[in-house]
Amino acid sequence: MPTTQPLTICLVDTQGHRTQTEVERQEWNKKDASSKALRFFVGMIIVALLMIPIPIVHFGIPIILLFSPLVAFIVYKVYSGGTDIKGEAKCPACNEALPIRSSCDHWPIHGVCPNCKASYSIEQC
Ligand SMILES: [Zn+2]
User: Fold this and answer.
1) How far is the CA of 92 from the centre of ligand 1 (A)?
2) Domain layout of the chain by residue ranges
3) Residues 57, 63, 68, 74: is their CA dihedral positive or negative?
4) DSSP labels for 14-71?
5) Global pTM?
6) Ligand 1: distance of its center to the CA of 4 in Å?
7) How far is the CA of 49 from the centre of ligand 1 (A)?
8) Measured in whole angstroms, how far is the alpha carbon of residue 111 from the centre of its chain?
9) Angle, helices 30-50/61-79, rounded to nearest 10 degrees
10) Are β-strands 18-27 and 3-13 bridged in parallel, bridged antiparallel, or unpaired?
């Protein structure tokens, strides 16, 4: 499991309104990323095994077996060293609940409120 730490963020809209909240920050190290890649690989093998008795669908088994190492490698590369934030904040424009779920490789993070369509940016406080 990735390590989780609390992180305080500020949401700022285009008119300067500001809200502050605390979210979870997850850091994926190489061991966590390889564990997740292994779970993807094993999951794809299980799906291939479950497809054996199904007519016509079982022709997809070689494709799954060929691409499962590639998918596992891609999962490892995507998650290795990655950092995610997730939580809930309040929109600085309309004050409605706003789900926050993003990778935080580049700050500030930009988004649009689904309720009032106001754009906002997320910064570290
Ligand atoms: Zn809003």
Assistant:
1) 7
2) 1-28+83-125, 29-81
3) negative
4) TT--EEEEEEEEEE--HHHHHHHHHHHHHHHHHHHHHTTTSTTGGGGHHHHHHHHHHH
5) 0.65
6) 27
7) 47
8) 15
9) 170
10) antiparallel
Tell me how far the alpha carbon of residue 90 lies from the centroid of ligand 1, in angstroms: 8
- One-letter amino acid identity for 119? S
CA of 125 to the centre of ligand 1 (A): 20
pLDDT in tens, 77-112: 988 888 889 999 999 999 999 999 988 778 889 999
Contacts of 33 (CB under 8 A, 6+ apart): 75, 76, 78, 79, 80, 81, 82
Task: Dig out the tokens for 39 from the structure.
Answer: 């779970």
Q: Pairing between strand 109-112 and 119-124?
A: antiparallel
Q: How far apart are the CA of 98 and the centre of ligand 1, in A?
A: 8
**118 Cα to the center of ligand 1, angstroms:** 6
Average pLDDT, the chain: 92
